[in-house]
Specification:
Blueprint (H helix, E strand, L loop, with lengths): L4 E3 L3 E5 L5 H8 L2 H4 L10 H12 L5 E7 L4 E12 L4 E8 L9 H15 L5 E7 L3 H9 L3 E12 L2 E11 L7
Parallel strand pairs: 5-6
Antiparallel strand pairs: 1-2, 2-3, 3-4, 4-5, 6-8, 7-8
The structure holds coenzyme A (COA).
The site of coenzyme A has 23 residues, from helix 2, strand 5, helix 4, strand 6 and helix 5.
Length: about 180
């Protein structure tokens, strides 16, 4: 089977492979990305390889590398995790590790691409995410992608003895969250 590619004018998404491991570790452990993730410990090569083997290879996670067109540079990753076909839902995640690629609209485009893929190709009904309340950059991008706030979890995550609020956002296949 060939490598799945999702195409757009400015970026494309290519299915992750073991050869992306160095980039993933570099991006995921960069301060800018790490400080915005709920799991704040450094990601080890072993943990990432185990994630690929036990989650990606068996379809529990669909993960892509985001590639900037023109220069063909890999800049980050976007994924749907814990895909739950019984309830037709999955959790969304994204990070752009190359700082020069931030604020160019790529995060929003990649989000739109993978949610469309989740609804149309995987048959999902709901895609949700969890984000720190103070991550205004990511929240702005998610709002542009039509995620709506579904809940606020107060003092939900503890880092260095400080508690942080988490916003839970979702997007639905039919675009209507009032059902
Ligand atoms: C979240 C992320 C993928 C967004 O990617 P991006 O390509 O920079 O996002 P976009 O360019 O599509 O959109 C960013 C929007 O946020 C705005 N923005 C950027 N910094 C901001 C800030 N400090 N305050 C408010 N808005 C901000 C931008 O102006 C833009 O909105 P606009 O188009 O209305 O001007 C990227 O910031 C990232 O990888 N962050 C680190 C990891 C992370 O936070 N992951 C999510 C964890 S839940």
């Amino acid at each position: 089977m060939g490598v799945l590619i999702l195409d757009n004018e400015k970026i494309y998404l290519r299915e992750i492979s073991f050869s992306d491991t160095d980039n993933i570790i570099k991006w995921r452990n960069s301060l800018y990305v790490k400080q915005n993730f709920i799991y704040q410990k450094d990601l080890t090569r072993e943990e990432h390889e185990s994630w690929i083997k036990t989650k990606v290879k068996c379809g529990k996670v669909k993960q892509f590398i985001i590639i900037e067109k023109g220069n063909n540079n890999p800049i980050g990753s976007v994924y749907l995790r814990d895909i739950d076909y019984n309830n037709s839902k999955a959790e969304f995640g994204i990070f752009i590790g190359e700082k020069t690629a931030l604020n160019k609209g790529y995060g929003t485009i990649a989000t739109n691409m993978i949610t469309k893929y989740g609804f149309n190709q995987l048959g999902l009904n709901k895609i949700f995410l969890r984000v720190f309340e103070n991550n205004v950059h990511a929240i702005r991008s998610y709002e542009k992608s039509n995620f709506i706030q579904e809940g606020l979890f107060k003092q939900d995550v503890c880092i260095d003895k400080k508690f942080y609020n988490i916003i839970f956002m979702s997007i639905f296949k039919n675009g209507d969250s009032n059902d």
